[in-house]
Amino acid sequence: xxxxxxxxxxxRQVLGSMAVLVPLALAAADKPAEKISPDQLxxxxxxxxxxxxxxCYQCHSANAEKVKGGLLLDTREGTRMGGATGHAIEPGDxxxxxxxxxxxxxxxxxxxxxxxxxxxxVIADFEKWVLMGAPDPRDxxxxxxxxxxxxxxxxxxxxxxVKPVAVPQxxxxxxxxxxxxxxxxxxxxxxxxxPVTDADxxxxxxxxxxxxxxLPPTPEQVAAFVKDYQSATGNRQSAIAKTVxxxxxxxxxxxxxxxxxxxxxxFAESTGKERNFAYPEAWRYRDYVIASFNxxxxxxxxIREQVAGDLLPAKDAAQRxxxxxxxxxxxxxxxxxNEKNREQFIMDNVDEQIDxxxxxxxxxxxxxxxxxxxxxxxxxxxxxxxxxGIFKSTQTHFGVGGGGNGKNRQPSTHVPLVKTYxxxxxxxxxxxxxxxxxxxxxxxxxxxxxxxxxxxxxxxPKLVAKLKAMSxxxxxxxxxxxxxxxxxxxxxxxxxxxxxxxDAPKAIGEPNGQWAMAVLDGKPADCPIYIRGELEEKGxxxxxxxxxxxxxxxxxxxxxxxxxxLELANWLTSxxxxxxxxxxxNRVWQHLFGDGIVSTPDNFGATGERxxxxxxxxxxxxxxxxxxxxVKQLIREIVLTRxxxxxxxxxxxxxxxxxxxxxxxxANQRRLDAESIRDSILAASGRLDLQPPAGSPLxxxxxxxxxxxxxxxxxxxxxxxxxxxxxxxxxxxxxLDLFDFAxxxxxxxxxxxxxxxSQALYMLNSPFIQENAVAFAKRFQGTSADxxxxxxxxxxxxxSRPPTTAEIARAESYLKxxxxxxxGSPESALTTFCQALFASAEFRYVK
Amino acid sequence: MNTNxxxxxxxxxxxxxxxxxxxxxxxxxxxxLAFAGLSAQAAGYQSPTLPxxxxxxxxxxRVIFLAMQGGPSHLDTFDYKxxxxxxxxxxxxxxxxxxxxxxxKQRGQSGLWISEAFPQVAQHADELCLLRxxxxxxxxxxxxxxxxxxxxxxxxxxxxxxxTLYGLGTENQNLPGYMTIAAPIALGGAQNYGSAxxxxxxxxxxxxxxxxxxxxxxxxxxxxxxxxxxxxxxxANLPADAQRAQLDLVQSMNRDxxxxxxxxxxxxxxxxxxxxAFRMQSEVPKVLDMSKESAATLKxxxxxxxxxxxxxxxxxxxRRLAESGVRFIEVCHQGWDHHSGLKSRIASSCxxxxxxxxxxxxxxxxxxxxxxxLVIWGGEFGRTxxxxxxxxxxxxxxxxxxxxxxxxxKGGFSYGATDEHGGxxxxxxxxxxxxxxxxxxxxxxxxxxLTYRYAxxxxxxxxxxxxxxxxxxx
Lengths: 847, 474
Fold this sequence. Notes:
The complex is a heterodimer.
Chain A: H1 11-21, H2 38-56, H3 76-81, H4 98-104, H5 120-131, H6 150-153, H7 179-190, H8 201-213, H9 219-230, H10 236-249, H11 251-264, H12 282-294, H13 299-308, H14 317-326, H15 328-331, H16 342-362, H17 381-392, E1 394-397, E2 415-418, H18 426-434, H19 446-459, H20 461-469, H21 472-489, E3 511-516, E4 518-521, E5 527-530, E6 538-542, H22 565-572, H23 580-593, H24 614-626, H25 631-639, H26 652-657, E7 670-671, H27 674-684, H28 708-713, H29 734-737, H30 757-765, H31 767-778, H32 787-799, H33 805-820, H34 826-839, E8 845-846
Antiparallel strand pairs in A: 1-4, 2-3, 5-6, 7-8
Helix pairs in contact in A: 2-5, 8-9, 9-10, 11-12, 13-14, 13-22, 16-17, 19-20, 19-21, 23-24, 23-25, 31-34, 33-34
Chain B: H1 19-25, E1 62-68, H2 82-86, E2 91-92, E3 95-96, E4 104-107, E5 112-115, H3 119-122, E6 128-135, H4 141-150, H5 160-168, E7 178-181, E8 205-207, H6 218-223, H7 240-259, H8 266-288, H9 295-300, H10 309-323, E9 328-333, H11 342-366, E10 373-378, E11 382-383, E12 395-396, E13 400-406, E14 413-415, E15 417-418, E16 425-427, E17 430-431, H12 432-442, E18 452-454, E19 457-459
Parallel strand pairs in B: 1-9, 1-10, 6-14, 6-17, 7-8, 7-9
Antiparallel strand pairs in B: 2-3, 4-5, 6-13, 10-13, 11-12, 15-16, 18-19
Helix pairs in contact in B: 7-8, 10-11
C-alpha cells in the first residue's frame, strides 16, 4: 500500500544513502538448487558471470568494501531478491528487472555501472539471459559482511546473563546503611568523590511522598514524621521505614507507579492518528495496572498477564476478567482506521505490538528489523518475523465498531467479560476463542468469488468488469473489505452497549454485560518475511519464535493450536532473560533518582548509554528476581539506603569532578511530573478528590470520531487525581500537556523536562490556577488573624516546610501592599499570594 | 523524569548568542535580574528554541505554508494539458476525461500557463516555481494529509514545522516559533503540527481561524477567553501593576531557590520563562491585532469582502507573524475535495483564496520579505483527469502540482511534468519526501543530517528518502 516506487532518476544517490542506513542482509531462504541445462550454464559462465565479477562485485558483493544499496549480485538469491529498491532480476521479465533498466540507461545519475556504459552486445546478453529465465548456478545464501554476528552480539553487556556480584568493600566502613550503599560509595571513592550530608527531614519527607505516591504530605504528616525523626529516643532509620511502609501500603502508591507503567504501555483512550475514535473500555486497563501495583503483583506475572492473560488459567470469573483486561496492553495502541488494505492494517498492528512488547519488557527496539536487520543491535529480520507470526496469530479486539459515519474501515469488537467461569484446562480456553476465529483468509475460494460476483452484479456492470480484471490478490482484498462491511449493518440490541456482530467473540462463561479491550488467539500460522516491510514482497516463512541473541531457541516450542504468546510471555519473564529484570530495576532506580543507572531506559542496545554502576544494576536485578519480582520490595530497599536519603547540598570539589552527579554524591533536584503538579495544586486548595472515579468520560463515546464536540465535553471539571483524567491521543488535558506528559502514541520510558513560557502563562492566567488559588486562600479565612500564621500554614501546604523569617517578612509586605492597592483587598491579596506559591519553582520541584 | 536532556543535534552549533547576550537583548524591565545572583552551575541553561546555526547558508529564513486541504485540482489550475482538452469526453483512467473548467493562459515574462481560476495569483507568475510532477503514496485524505505534514502516514512522527524549529530555533522568543492557523481538528489533528518524539517545545501552536464576520471586531476580542487567540492563557488575569507585583514575588522566591547550593539550572529557565510570558501578554495581542492595518491593506487581502474574508485574515495574520519573526507559519483552507459540481466548486474555492494569496505575495514583496520567506501552496494530493463517475474529479496521488515562491527558488519556473492527460507524474517527479528535503534545504538544513535519536535510532524527517531537485534553486 505504502509502497514507494522509486523512479530511477537519482537512483544512485538513493542507493548511496541506503547503503549507510540499510545493510540489508536477509536471513537465508532455503531454496533448492535450480535445474540448469548445460547450455544455460555455459551461457551464464561465459557471458554473465565475468561481467558481474568485473563490473558489479566491487560494490555489490559480500566482499565489497561498502555494499551499495543493499544489493548483492554474488549469489542467485541476492540477485533475485535485489536491494533496497526492488528485484534486480525478475526471471523472464525485462521490465521488472531493475538491473536491466540500469544497464540500459544513459542518464548520468541512473546508469550502471556508474562510469562506463556496458557495450550494446553485453546488454543484449543480459537481456537474453533474463528472458531465458536468468539461469544462475550460484547457490548459497545472500549475505553481507555486516550481517549481525550473534556470537559477538551476545557479548554485549546487556545481552549477557545477570551475573552474581560480590558486594564491594568501600574504605569508609561506617557510612553505608546497606549493600546498595556500598556499591555507590565504592564508585564515589574510586572517583575521589564524597557523599554530602543527609537530607533534612522536611525535604526528605516531601521527596519520599512524591516519589512513592505522587502527592505531597499533609502538614500533619510532615509534623508527625519530623517529630519521629528528631526524637531523641527514636531511630532515624526506623522512622523512615515506618513511613515507607505506610506509603507502600497506600492505595495511592499504585496511582503513582501504575502511571509510570502506563507511560511505557503508551496508554490512551482513543485510536489517535488520522481518525481519532474513542476506546470506551480502555480505562479498565488503566485500573488494572493501578490495582496490580497496589497488590504488588510479581512483575514477571504482571508482564505475562499483559502478553498472554487470555491463555493463562483463571480460578474464577473475577480473575478471568482481570486476565482479559490485562491483554488490553496489546490492544490499545494507535490505529490507522482509514487504512483500506486489511493485510496492511494487520501488519501495522503487529508491528506496533512487537514494538510495545519489546520496548516495555526488554528495553530494546526490535521493530527496526521490520524492513531490514537492525543496524546497531544483533536483531535480525528473522527475529522480527518470528515474533510477527505470534502476533499475527492473535486477534486484537480494540472495540471500535463500524459506526461513526463509516469513517472506520477496520471495525473491531470488544471481548465480553463474564460473571460465571469454571476453571478450564488451557486447551479448551483456546478452543473457545477459536470458535470465534475470523482470521483473514489467505486463499481465494470459489465461494468468495461467488459472493463478490453477486455483490458486483447487484451494484453495476462497471463493477463486474472491474472484478473480472482483478488479480486473485486484489479479489481477496476486495472480499475482505466486503466482509468487513457486515458489522456496520448490525443493529444494537436493547440494553447492550455494543451492537451484536457476527464476528464478536463468544464469552467463556455467562456474560456480565461488561466488555474489555483484549486479545485472543486467532488461527495460528507462521509469518513470511516481508522484504523491506512491503506486503507484496514475500520472503521465506519464518517459524514463530523470539529474539535469538537473547537466548531464544528456534523454533519456539509452541502449544499446538496456540499463537505462541504464552510461550513468548514465559520467555520474556524467564529468570534467564538478561534484559527484563535489569530494565525494570533500572526504571525503579530512575523514578527514585531522576536518572537510571542506564540513562537511556528505553534503549539497552548498542546506541544506548552504558550503565554508570553495572555491578549495582546486576545486584538490583538479581535481588528483584530473588524477592519474587516484588516492585514494592525493590523500592523499599532503595529508599532505605543512605544514598537515597542524601541532601541536595552542593560541594565545589565534587561538582568540579562530576557536575552531572552521575555517581550520586548528592540528591538531584527534580521537577515534579505533570500529574503531581496538578494533584498538588488540588491538594493545597483542599479540593482534591482522592476517590478513584468509576470508569471514564470516554466510556459513553462508542464508535465516535472525536472532534470539537468531544474536546469540549472532555474539558469538564475533574477533581480526581490526574492519572484518572481522560487520555485522548492528540487531545491531552492542558494541565498535563504543558508539563511534558508522556506522548501517548509512543512508548515513553523517560519524559522530557522542558521549561517554556506557556507553562508560565498557565500559572499566571489559567482558570484552573485561579480557581484553586481562591480555594487555597479561603482555607485560611476565619483562622488566626495573625498573618504570620497564615503565611506559615500556606507554606506548609505548598512546600511541606515552614517559611524562614525573611520569607515571612517578604510575604507580609506583599500582602499589606496588595491589600491597600487600588481595587485590592486583604482577600484578593491572599489569593494572589497563594497563586504565587503555585507559580513558584519550589512548588514544582523536590530536592 | 530525567533532567535536562540535551536538545542535541550533533551537527548544529548554537549561534554565538550567549545567555548573557540574550538577557541583555531583552533587558527592558529586566534589570533586577542580577547576573551575579545566578549561580555558576545554573549558567548552562538555554531556551530550547533559541536560534541555531543552520548547516549551510539558508535561502529562506521562514516558511509560510498555505495548506489546501482536500486535494486541489492541478488540472484546472496550474497544470496545462492541451491533450486533456482535446480528448475531453473520451473514456480515461477514472471515468470520462474532463476538460479543465477554467481557461489556461500564458502569464508574465516567463509565460507560465496558469488558469483563470487563479487570475490574481497568476499575476505573480514570475515569482512562482511550479512543481508539476508531485506525487505521494496514498490517495486518501487522512493519510495523505498526515504524510504531507510529517512524512509518514504509518507512524507518529514529528511535523515538518517541528523539525524546522528543532533545526533552526526561532528569532522572536516572545512568540511561539511555529504557529498554525485553522488546522483541521480531524485528519490527524494535532499530529499534523505535533513534535512526537522531539521535545514538546518544538510543537506548533494552534490558533483558530479569525472570527469570520467583518473586519476585526474589538468587542469580540474583548470577550475572548484567551484560548481563541490561539495562545492559551495569554490574557492577563490581573491588572499589569498587580501582576508585576505578584510576579516580582514569584521571581524573588525563584531566585532564592536558584541561589541555594545544588539548584537545578532549570530554575533559571523558569525565571526566564516568566519574564517571557509576562512580555508575551502584551506582545502577542499586538501581533495578532489587525485593527491597525490600513483600510487599503485590509481591502487588498479581501478582508470584509464576503468569501475572501476568512482566508484574507489568515494570510494577513501570516504576514504579521512572519514579520514578527515566527519561523514556521501554516494557514489552512479546507474544502478542496471536488468530486462533484467541479466548475462551480473550483470557482468558489479558488475565489476564496486567490485574492488573499496574491495580496500576501505582493505584501511580502513590498516589505522585502519575499526574498527570504518561502511560500508553499498545495494540498495532500491532486485530482484525476477522469470524472470519477460524477461531475467532478477523483483523488489522485500519482500526479499533481504544488508551487513554491520566494526564498531561494526560481520564479517563473516550472519543474516536473505529468503525462499528456495530467494523471501521472512522469518527468522530474517530486515526492512529498523530496518536497520536505527541499524545504529544509532552502532553510539551510541538510535533511540527511538533521537527525534526532529516539529509541536507539537517528530519525529524519525524510526517513531514508528525499532528494533536492537542484534545478529549482535560484
